[in-house]
Design goal:
Mean pLDDT: 92
Number of domains: 1
Strand content: under 5%
Radius of gyration: 14 Å
CATH class: Mainly Alpha
Number of helices: 4
Structural class: mainly alpha
CATH topology: Four Helix Bundle (Hemerythrin (Met), subunit A)
Distance between the termini: 22 Å
Order of helices and strands: HHHH
Helix content: over 70%
Number of strands: 0
Low-confidence stretches: none
CATH architecture: Up-down Bundle
């Protein structure tokens, strides 16, 4: 679900403080889009929303979430918006987020859970 190698690489590339900032920004911006998809889904925006989510997800190591977003983005681009399981995208995000935040502490990568 989480690509911990990618997480470690990112932290090494940008340092502890930069990593904490990226995590905070990611969680804030991505969660806003995910909540909107859950509460006010707009099929006309699926392609762009999922593209945005995919980029952030893969950058931060949210592998399964990123793959779901990529699949949904492709479906939307092909005109198959009704085939996108938005509820699953939302669920996988929140599950990934919880695993990610718990794993940061377990792996000693950063204490950003309060960020």
């Amino acid at each position: 679900m989480i690509d911990w190698m990618r997480v470690g690489e990112l932290r090494s590339e940008i340092g502890i403080d930069g990593f904490a900032e990226v995590v905070e920004l990611f969680l804030d911006e991505v969660e806003g889009v995910v909540v909107r998809l859950k509460t006010r889904p707009d099929p006309a925006k699926f392609e762009s929303d999922l593209h945005f989510l995919k980029g952030g997800a893969w950058n931060l190591g949210f592998a399964e979430f990123g793959a779901l977003c990529q699949d949904g983005e492709r479906k939307a681009a092909d005109g198959h918006r009704d085939d996108i399981d938005i509820a699953r995208v939302v669920d996988v995000y929140f599950t990934s987020r919880d695993i990610f935040l718990a794993g940061l502490t377990d792996r000693g990568l950063a204490d950003v859970s309060a960020a």
